[in-house]
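Reply to dn_fold:

You asked what the input looked like. This is it:
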Amino acid sequence: MSTVTVSPLRQRMIEDMNARKLCAGTQRGHIRSCKRFAAFLKRSPDTATAEDIRRFQLHLFETGASICNRNRIMTGLRFLFRVTLRRLDLAAEIYHLREPQKIPLVMSQDETRRLLAVASSLKVRMLLSLGYGCGLRAGEVVRLKVKHIDSAQKIIRVEQSKSRKDRNVMLSPDTLDLLRQWWKTRRRGFDSTTPVEERWLFPGQRSGKPMTTRQLNRLFHEAADAAGIRKGVTLHALRHSFATHLLERGTDIRVIQALLGHDKLDTTARYARVATGMIAGIKSPLDLLSQPCKKPKKNRKDQPPT
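and this is what came back:
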């Protein structure tokens, strides 16, 4: 049995991240970034100079790292130099690139209907229905517990999601009916000692843990292939489609903002750029050129007396 030795620098960085309550995913990303920088230097990052940081940023560009991935790596390094090492002079050498503004890829209502229809099991249909019908992120879907379902108020409570925020989303009659069907068929016995309110709706293979987002992502792509959806959609497209279809039906954008849990209205407003129903309904000024001009009606007060 091998033991992993943690260097004093990494241990101190982990303590700094824990003190600031960074989530586990963010911590893993920061650690990976520092390991990549150390591999580039071939020595400890605490010996780095401003020239080393400049060369590393140039190296990321030359190796074809995407802007998003490159910025994520440099965010981890900036934490190391600014917080753990207190080297503000080196942290100032780190810069971020402006990421391209891309519109979300959404599915049409017909494509969504086909996706749910070809779901291979009740569980898969339930998972995908929660993503589309409630606008939930993948991590929010798999971490649902019995206590989060409020059938009396017809809401689902999402606890401590992105940015450690709570929010409520609607629980439609169709979704509630599917949940009740799923609960009857859900495997039992392994969590019999857990209070019912604390049980996962979608338990995973590991005891006491929910299913993983990787499993959910695989199930989504299998369903998308079976439905004949050729777009390069991802699991998050269900959430994008939820917001876009609500906007096309005239739902107030601030209501959609609350359902999605966005801090800024600008983040929600981007769905107006992909609401194809709204865009297709706009009359082009080119079409107006071919229409005969209407003569303005004369005001009766301007007519001479007979």
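The domain at 109-280 is CATH 1.10.443.10 (hpI Integrase; Chain A).
Hope that clears it up.
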